[in-house]
Amino acid sequence: MARIFAYIVHKAGVADDSAAELLTAASKIDSAASLTAIVTGWGADLDAVCSTLRASYSEVWKIANEAFAYPNAELVRKALVKVLPQGSILLVSHEHFGIDLAPGLSIKLKSAFVSDVLGIDGVEGSHLKVVRQEFGGQVSAHVRCDISSGAVITIRPGAFKPLEIAPVKGSVVDMSSDVGVLAAGRRYLETVVAEAGDVDITKHNVLVSIGRGIQEKDNVAIAEELAEALGAAVSCSRPVVDAKWLEKSRQVGTSGKTVKPKVYLACGISGAFQHLAGIKGNPFIVAINKNPKAPIFQVADVGIVDDLLEFLPEFTNKVREMRTVSAK
Amino acid sequence: MEILVCARRVPDTSENEIELNSAGNDIERDDLVYSINEWDNYAVEEALQIVARVGGNVTVVTVGGEDDEEILRREMAMGATHGVLISDDAFSGSDGRGIATILAAFVRKGHYDLVLTGVQAEDGGAQVGGMLAAMLDYPFASLVNSIEVLDSKKLKISREIAGGNKEISEIDLPCVLSIQTGINEPRYVGMRGIRQVASVPIPTFAASDLGVDPGSVGTTAAKVKRVDYFVPALGKGAEMLEGSREEIIEKLVELVAAKGGLK
After folding, report:
1. Tell me, what's the ipTM?
2. Which of A10, A212, B125, B133 has the CB geometry, 3.0–4.6 Å to A115, for a possible disulfide?
């Protein structure tokens, strides 16, 4: 069985949550595998991450280089190509860094590549069988991957729950000198932090959240009227921001805001994982969608199959009626 | 600037409910509405906007069959200078690496300053752009949500990272960028525009034209193969409210009030 490595994403001296999830994923490939963490970085932050990882990984490969002070996928790729043994299996989290790194790395390692894996069935001979989602999560697919010359696999964040494991006393191996001089055709300049926006959706207990099903900009008013009646705020999924119908600050999801409301009304939202990952704190989710197969119905508490452009105004009227009655 | 955009025709998820076929091993492909992959359409629009600012040409290329010409014509109607179809029986069943191998051979035959792909396809996995860049030894950036041409040698780009933040970098040309939705507002294409390019010839390249070894692509070379499609039973699912719309609204108001949504 090939040796399994996990590339660890970290920030400000703290390993990403995916560090624990990759351990779970690796155990599904080979329950007997001893998994090696690979960490690139520079200075005290890197040391802090490595020393934390020793508690869960039996071996931690540390690659320190000033060029890694800000992670650059092209430089990390060059370093990994130098240190990874031939035929290795490398797991990386499927987030913005993994998406940058993994496909090109698989080419340089001459290994197989499977992305955004959310289930692992196991190994049959020289093949690994995994589960992916396609078409916005409407269907799943079993995928067979030939791992005889190694594999680079990106793992969907949150798909593998961390295991309860007894702490280990792993060793840190410094691989920094094996990397050599690094140069890249892309150079980091700065990070621009997202604008705050007019409404802070993270502070609201009730969100009326709209997706592609709202169909056009003029219909956003329908959601705003409901939100006003409920005393809620309007949030949205990615397509609404892409279409410029609402500001980016209203977007719930991995590339938007993480919200923790008590009640979340998902209106015309299909329920892609990037969106669902932005909803925390186990709210009461109501899904209104005209497609009964929409993945949102799998995670919602209550589902309604209807045309939201007709349903929402009637719901708004009812809420207003209730308000009037209770005010009397 | 000479810009190549790699595009794909895919089942349109905003027009279709994707379901399993009766055999349960594939999606139901009868009556599917196809369109250009949404991310790729943003990439073409971005290329057109760059060319409008600094001059040059936009070529849209796809690997597929005759049916895929429709997206090339659509993008030409948007303003792309050329459409190119890469088609060969040997390409059938290619995995992401196979597609990247074919595209790399095509890129090497031309002189492109910039190659764009979509971040991902509806049924793909954010792979071809990064693979293509590695094969060509070009710099690569994924999830790109803005492009500024600094000079003939480099671009200033922004990547979409967590929490709506943007990572700004400089990148040398030639390079490959994978384009994120929302980077621009793709222009509308009317039937009239498509009719105007309906008879423009679309050059087609086969494996031999590109010097692609048929053994390095297609089903035989694919390390990654889809076995089947399925719909997983995830959790218990939502309690579906049924009845007339009035009854449903009545019930929903009660539920929302009980959960503290009506204070």
Report:
1. 0.94
2. B125
